[in-house]
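User: Hey, quick favor. My workstation is busy. Could you predict this chain's structure for me?
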Amino acid sequence: MNYFRGNIAYVDLRGYVGHYSNSARRSIKKTVARNFVFPSNFKSLRSESVWGISMVRDEEDVIEEVIRHQLGQGISPILIADNNSVDSTPRILARLAEELPVFIVQDSLRAYHQDEKMTALSRAAFDHGAKWIVPFDADEMWFAEESTVADFLTNSDLSIVRAAMYNIYPTGAKSIGSMDLSEQPMAKVAFRASRFALLGIGNHRVVRSGKLGTGLYVAHYPWRNVEQLQRKVRQGREALEAAALAGNMGSHWRALADLTDRDVQRLWSFIETQTPHPVLEDKFLGPFVDVDPRHWSTWQGPRADQQDAGSKHA
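Assistant: No problem, here it is.
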């Protein structure tokens, strides 16, 4: 829960870190640290800039394009944890790290502790000079309206920036192309780097004090093909089991984890036709328009001030 005093936003910690006891969180933090191996060239890195942080697993179809996009938005360097990928993701990341300001952390911990892992990456970035943190997933492209993301953040007086998220779906033979013009209920956040900032699961919340505002946008590609859907279901199941999360955590992945391969095949037809399904977080509110944000340099989609009041999500 966010609450306000004047123009300063604070965050109720209980909503984001209350599912573990303090001792359990300390134990998880130590476990994450033990399973993170930073590259040798990271130790001497110092960059007082807008950093990107991410964690990925088996994202070979999107990871290079997304990283190059974020770098093009001035988000640099990028610190990215590879969590046991078995496809070509490690090779792609290694190649990018040779030519670009991309630093790869080897993450061997299978358990679903995304909030702790992303918080660890955030603190590492802070320790190496980061002024702003953009936590992104491998299926997200970030934008500002009239500048790069980095320019927007650098010139902002905010401490936390809410990034409105819009989903892009495959339609029939098209692998990418249909944008849901209704903003997704769960936004993302970018924030001024802080040793004490805590990221929530999904990078939807950050625990830190400061002025809260808007101005960033995310084009999100959650489902790209049926094979990717099947892989995500399987990986989500494994990660939840390894983490032993409380029953109210990761409910979306718990629902997906109960699906058989045949169920997943059926589910794909709902995604392809933008039809709501009980186990999907996607509501497919529409309207839909064929666009390709991969070619945008600034945000060309719907803006917060253009949305009808009835279609906004708090």
